[in-house]
Design brief:
Blueprint lengths: L5 E6 L1 H8 L4 H12 L3 E6 L2 H6 L6 E5 L8 E6 L5 E5 L21 H16 L11 E5 L15 H11 L4 E5 L8 H13 L3 E3 L4 H7 L2 E4 L3 H6 L6 E3 L10 E2 H4 L1 H7 L7 H11 L2 E2 L5 H11 L5
Parallel strand pairs: 1-2, 1-3, 3-4, 6-7, 6-9, 7-8, 9-10, 10-11
Antiparallel strand pairs: 4-5, 5-12
Helix pairs in contact: 2-12, 4-11
InterPro entries: TagF_C (IPR043148)
Protein name: Capsule polysaccharide biosynthesis protein
């Protein structure tokens, strides 16, 4: 028996309020797409209980940044900056369609790519992205769980720092802690011990934009700071799986030695990549094509729209 054509959103409080009032541009476009296909729409909170109960409801479910629960469920998430979005069957960025699609710069119009890249570089970072130097620094934005190796990582964040210092014996490494992460006293103690062991390593509170202006390259597990670095023309070494790996030196795919050998060897075409990643492979909610791309994403999930 087919499921009723009803869509339930599961959203955190602030987003839920905005969606109910019709003030969230991207959600409003999703609503238009499904209503045009004959769906009714409901909005719900995203508490653990509400998400657990969602599997017992008929119809379709759309979550924001939460793992989809049960069948006929998808999740949506901003692609680093507004108004770019993805609708996917998993929260794991490294399993998204874009992550598994080959990037071919030769198929992209350079004039359009340069225009798009220049517009967003100016929009996001003003003149800062043009005021860049290379000061012999590796910028290492840390995320959470400093001593653990999670399933999508090639090593723990602390092991990443050691590998970086060993594979690049001349540059200074400036590591930063994530402002929204909670670090245990044990983690901080081990990080401090590492900095004492390696004089070229320091842990500082410093603005991301300043570091992207000054660094030679970025080393991270999969921090969005590395993606932002593309707007500054700064290459990166990734130690974990992610969706924007195509023009990075990638430890997961290349191995440790090869990643550090290649990170500064070639200059990727960041303009064409950003155009491809955002304009082709993501949903730009600010364009007339947004609803059609939403429809395509829902259809890939098997939804009758």
């Amino acid at each position: 028996m087919s499921s009723p054509t009803h869509l339930d959103f599961y959203l955190e409080p602030e987003l839920l309020k905005s969606a109910r009032e019709g003030k969230h541009n991207f959600i409003a476009k999703i609503v238009e797409v499904v209503e045009e296909a004959g769906f009714s729409v409901g909005f719900n909170g995203n508490s653990l209980r509400e998400r657990a109960d969602s599997v017992n409801r008929p119809g379709y479910r759309l979550f924001h940044m939460d793992e989809p629960e049960g069948e006929r469920a998808l999740t949506f998430r901003r692609v680093y900056h507004y108004p770019f979005w993805q609708i996917e069957p998993t929260t794991k960025r490294w399993d998204w369609r874009v992550a598994n699609t080959r990037f071919d710069p030769d198929r992209i119009d350079d004039t359009e790519a340069q225009r798009f890249y220049g517009f967003w570089r100016k929009r996001l970072f003003g003149d800062a992205a043009e005021q860049v130097t290379r000061d012999g620094i590796i910028y290492a934005p840390l995320q959470g769980r400093l001593t653990e190796r999670r399933s999508f990582q090639t090593c723990s964040p602390l092991e990443m720092l050691v590998s970086t210092l060993q594979h690049d014996p001349s540059r200074r490494v400036i590591a930063t802690l994530h402002p929204k992460e909670h670090y245990t006293a044990s983690e901080i103690s081990k990080l401090d011990a590492l900095a004492a062991r390696f004089p070229r390593l320091t842990v500082q509170e410093v603005d991301m934009v300043e570091m992207l202006q000054r660094c030679d390259y970025v080393v991270t597990q999969n921090s969005s700071a590395a993606f932002n670095g593309y707007f500054f023309g700064k290459p990166c070494v990734l130690f974990a799986r992610v969706d924007f790996h195509h023009v990075a030196a990638d430890v997961y795919r290349q191995g440790l030695d090869r990643a550090f050998e290649t990170v500064l060897a070639e200059t990727p075409d960041y303009a064409r990549y950003i155009w491809w990643f955002w304009q082709k492979m993501s949903i730009n909610a600010g364009t007339p094509k947004a609803k059609n791309k939403i429809r395509q994403a829902l259809r890939r999930g098997g939804w009758p729209v």
